[in-house]
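Issue: ligand-bound run for FE2/S2 (inorganic) cluster - logging full I/O for the record.

Environment: standard queue, default settings, no custom constraints.

Inputs:
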Amino acid sequence: MAFERVCGLSEVPEDGALRVELADIDVAVVRFEGDVYAIQDVCSHAEVPLSEGDVEEFGGAPTIECWLHGSCFDLRTGEPTNLPATEPVDVYPVRVDGEDVYVDTHADGTRPLASADDRAAN
Ligand code: FES
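Outputs:
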């Protein structure tokens, strides 16, 4: 595990996303209902940034919607929840320490989920 600081928590809009670049990987840091997620910032259907899409609940899952054709991606797993995308995008573990947001793009298979409420515990 190699968490690296990517941004300040206040830089990420609530129910929105911030695009960051980490180790040559484009990552969307997303806040939704108090939780913080990190997801690959390239749609699996075509190469457009997911960070420009809406963050919303879809079918009970926290998602980010691709603005081009409307596929939503589960922020917890990277799986698309609707067509036309059929392939998942990568997701990364997130750690929030005070105002600082850390992401580990080297993690293998670990799904991220860090609550902003975890800040007090770190
Ligand atoms: S480019 Fe994202 S759904 Fe088509």
